[in-house]
Amino acid sequence: MKTMFEATPINHKNLGRQKLFRFLLGSMTALLIFPVILIMGTLIYKGAPVISFDFLFSNPTNGMTEGGIFPALLGTILLVLVALLASVPLGVAAAIYLSEYAPDNWFTRIINLAIINLAGVPSIVHALFGLGAFVIFFRFGTSILAASLTLAIMTLPVVIVATRESLQAVPMAFREACWNMGATRWQTIRRIVLPNAITGILTGVILEVSRTSGETAPIMFTGAVFFLPFLPQGVFDQTMALSLHLFVVSTQVPEMPEAVPYGVALVLIALVLMMNSLSIALRMYLRGKKKW
Amino acid sequence: MVSQENAGPDPQTNTPAKLHVDDLSIHYGSHAALEHVSLDIQENEIFGIIGPANAGKTSFLKAINRMDMFDPNMKTRGSIQLNGHNIRKVRNVYGLRSRIGVVFPLPVGLPLSVYDNVALAPRLRGLKDKAELNVIVERCLTRAALWDEVKDRLDSLGSLLSGGQQQRLTIARALSQEPELLMLDEFSIAVDPVTTMRIEDVLKELKSEMTIILVTNLVQQARRLADRTAFFLEGKCLDIGVTEDLFTGEVKDQRTRDYVEGRFG
Ligand SMILES: Nc1ncnc2c1ncn2[C@@H]1O[C@H](COP(=O)(O)OP(=O)(O)O)[C@@H](O)[C@H]1O
Ligand SMILES: [Mg+2]
């Protein structure tokens, strides 16, 4: 019996390798943390001192070197919300169609290809498209609406792909069991498929929020401006935005106090994290436990 | 006598068949799963189908529930009539499926609570009344021999029950459709012998309410339950007759007798 469990040379070799790879893979993962710590650390260290109630909630003054960033903060929130309002319904609907209804034919394949390509289009190209389509052709002017729609188009692939993947993660057997009872496709989607895919859809939303709130190029031509002395009154107004403001205060304004750009960046990141944690919390609440 | 059982109305009562299958063939791509099967199933009988693996038994059931619509590879030819209506010409295929309960060998507990699993079919047809739903859920779970085990945790997920429990949940779900035709495909595979016997007793009771097609890999189960039985082999229906005849009477094909007596292969 004893000999049976004694390690052979092969065992030794395998065990050694097992330890080595575990260590290598683990330490590479640990390396990932460094950039995050470095970025967050620098931002907090250099930016935190300028953050105050006034910084967040008052208008910039004196050529933006003094005062606060409220118009930019509000602008970014508005841009993201309007973009979400446009892209989430559209993206989820498209993903449901592609995953649950579309036959596997050349037309569907072309659509899927188009989505992949859309994801690969550089944001400056989206910006020019948005300028042509929304600002000029649809006559929205440079406005929150035009900028948000541009952002929505840019992030549509993210929402579609995340949603489609999560729909497809729901086992086919569930659908068939449901169809077999006489449920229509839509009844099956509403009662079985969607409730089990909702966490994946929220993942798409999280990714979209992060991406849209940081983008600069697409909004620069379509609705965001360097400086506005008043707050936007509606979606047809122009707006300031944090990302553009960060670009301006870091590069365009001479004699800018050094801490301000760090402060703006810190606020931008905190905003993204806050919006994300909302959907992360929702996701955790919905996921609860394993479903199958 | 075997051939008389094969087609047309019931020779004794002259009522039209519940299910009339005429020259049914099923292909997956170019592969024939079932060829030229014709048979009649009468109202309120338990009709057994026996035969070794890959005989085409499951495919036969799938065709009746129009599951060929889920699989672009699966093609059916010939005609199937339920209550005299050609099921391929039925416009409302959802209505057709809702009248047919199916239970396949791999149990599927839907990722809903046990209660919602069984209440799903009634809800799909628009029932909302809580009290009525409660009655249906309890009755179906009881008939599927599952009620005692789950009555205290109707909120837990059906998809996390054990395999045998999920199988009975699937049976309860099929019963909740109040089907006129119930099709069971090797339901006892995932269920222990005692529970199998309990479900068999229920099937005998259910016979007065519905027509049952029982595909089984246990020839003795067919003998215990089925009024008539068909023997499928390699995509062909070799024999069909009063169940006891397959065991002791005259058989059309010697392979039928070999199979039921376990001298096969
Ligand atoms: N979805 C499918 N795709 C392709 N071939 C299939 C499929 N289902 C069954 N078959 C084939 O059809 C034949 C009959 O299968 P099946 O109806 O499952 O028989 P049984 O239920 O009697 O075991 C087998 O040869 C099987 O390989
Ligand atoms: Mg089978």
Report the sheet-strand fraction of chain B.
15-25%
Give the quaternary arrangement of the chains: heterodimer
> What CATH architecture of the largest domain in chain A would you give?
Orthogonal Bundle
Amino- and carboxy-terminal Cα gap of chain B: 27 Å
Largest sheet of chain A: 2 strands, antiparallel
Quickly give the structural class of chain B: alpha/beta
Query: How many structural domains can be distinguished in the coordinates of chain A?
Result: 2
Structure write-up:
The complex is a heterodimer of chains A (292) and B (265). Chain A is mostly helical. Chain A folds into 2 domains: 8-50; 53-289, MetI-like fold. Chain A has 12 helices and 2 strands, in the order αααββααααααααα. Chain A has helices at residues 2-5, 9-47, 53-57, 70-101, 106-120, 123-137, 144-168, 172-180, 185-214, 217-220, 242-251, 259-287; strands at 60-61, 66-67. In chain A, a hairpin with a 4-residue loop joins strand 1 (60-61) and strand 2 (66-67). In chain A, helix 4 (70-101) packs parallel to helix 7 (144-168). By secondary structure, chain B is of the alpha/beta class. Chain B has a domain at 103-178. Chain B has helices spanning 57-64, 93-98, 114-124, 130-143, 147-150, 163-176, 193-206, 219-225, 243-248, 254-260, and strands spanning 19-28, 31-41, 46-50, 74-82, 85-86, 100-103, 181-185, 211-215, 228-233, 236-242. Chains A and B meet through helix 8 and helix 9 of A and helix 2, helix 3 and helix 6 of B. The structure holds adenosine-5'-diphosphate and magnesium ion. Adenosine-5'-diphosphate (ADP) binds at residues 28, 31, 33, 51, 53-59, 71, 73 of chain B.
Ordered list of secondary-structure elements with their pairings:
The complex is a heterodimer of chains A (292) and B (265).
Chain A: H1 2-5, H2 9-47, H3 53-57, E1 60-61, E2 66-67, H4 70-101, H5 106-120, H6 123-137, H7 144-168, H8 172-180, H9 185-214, H10 217-220, H11 242-251, H12 259-287
Chain B: E1 19-28, E2 31-41, E3 46-50, H1 57-64, E4 74-82, E5 85-86, H2 93-98, E6 100-103, H3 114-124, H4 130-143, H5 147-150, H6 163-176, E7 181-185, H7 193-206, E8 211-215, H8 219-225, E9 228-233, E10 236-242, H9 243-248, H10 254-260
Parallel strand pairs in B: 3-8, 3-9, 6-7, 7-8
Antiparallel strand pairs in B: 1-2, 1-4, 4-5, 9-10
Helix pairs in contact in B: 3-4, 3-6, 4-6
The complex binds adenosine-5'-diphosphate (ADP) and magnesium ion.
